Amino acid sequence: MLTLACSWLGMQWVHEAGHVLGALATGGEVERVVLHPLSISRTDLRTNPRPLVVTWAGPAFGVLAPLILWGMARGFSLDSAYLFRFFAGFCCLANGAYIGLGSFDAVGDCGELLRNGAAMGELWLFGALSSASGLILWNGQGRHFGLGNNGQPVPFRHCAGLAAITVGLISAGNLFFGTG
Length: 180
Description:
Layout: H1 2-25, E1 29-34, E2 42-47, H2 51-75, H3 81-102, H4 108-115, H5 120-138, H6 156-177
Antiparallel strand pairs: 1-2
C-alpha cells in the first residue's frame, strides 16, 4: 500500500513538473501548482503561449523521468531498483490511462490537447504505448513485494525509505504548493 501511495504522489510531482518545465521553456508563466494527496494535481498558468507543448510536456515528462530514474538505479545496481521499476511502470500506466481513456470525455489535459490541435489518435497512441509499457514493467515484479512462490520479504529499509518519501512529498506539496 505504501508503494502505491508513494507512486501516486511521485507521479503527480513528475507530471506537474513536466507542465512547469514546458511552460518555462516556452515563455509561459506559472501561477500555481496544486499537489495534494486527496485531490487531482494541476498546474495553473498565468500566460501560456504554447499550450499544446505545455500540455504534452506533463504526461511526456511524467513517463520519461521515471524511466530515466529506473535506468539510473539499474545502472548503479541499487538493490532498490525494483522500486524504481515499479514507480516507472506506475507512471507509464497512470499517464497512459489518463491520456488514452480521458480522451473520450476530454477531461483535464485531454481537453486541452484536443482544443489546441492534438488529434484523438495521438492521445490513443500515447495512451496505448504508455499503458502497455507500464504493464510490461510490472510483469514479474510481484516476487519483490513478497508475492508468488518466489516471494521475497521487502527489506525494512525500503519500507522506511518509502514512508519518508511519502511524508516528504505530502509535506512539500502542502508547504510549497498549497492544497487547492
